Amino acid sequence: MNTLHFLYHTTPGRLLLKPLTAPALSRTCGAFLDSKLSHCLVRPFARHNRIRLSDYEMDNVQSFNDFFSRSMGRTPSHRPGSGTSDRPVRRPFISLAGSERHRASH
Length: 106
Known about the structure:
This protein is 39% helix and 0% strand. It has 5 helices and no strands. The model is unreliable at 85-103 (pLDDT under 50).
């Protein structure tokens, strides 16, 4: 059973979901992710998501949220659509239905 199934399809999960989605917790987590204390989360996040930190300018990254507004100054050729390839950039079609069949038909 994955986490989402637990949260949405079990009684204990639904009981946990209410406080997890409360505005106060959201603001608290947002404040933490804006703080310097959250900087320690950047490397594990990058490693888990196979992001090479050497491709990015990390000098001004003070918090986890800063990581998402960093520059790609060192190797702009890694940016999709940077003009280094003759192939067009494919953007995924995002459907509210979320089905693969729906995306394939568009």
